[in-house]
Specification:
4-stranded antiparallel β-sheet, binds zinc ion, mainly beta, Metal Binding Protein, Guanine Nucleotide Exchange Factor, Chain A
Length: about 100
Amino acid sequence: MKNDKFSHARGGWSRVLDVSCEGCGVRLCYYQKDGPGPLKRMYVDRMINLTPRDDQLICSECKRILGIQITYKKENRPAYRLFQDSIKKKITSQSIIRQNQSLR
Ligand SMILES: [Zn+2]
């Protein structure tokens, strides 16, 4: 888990989400969500097993466009703004992530 000025700005606590495509259900990535509130955008530096570089965030399976790249101006930070109902998410535990990374 990253613990930096961005997570501190959001209250200093984070959780890991398992993010998948709403359309086909395939896993997109794990994502560190800092602080409370809905998931409206995903910061690139918080995506755990994905480093997208395209203008659009596209499902690798069904090719649906899930969001578009933006720079969150307040923090000058690259992110993807998610379209409404484009993704599903569930809270996962860090141990699952570690397990997953050791398998890769
Ligand atoms: Zn999909």
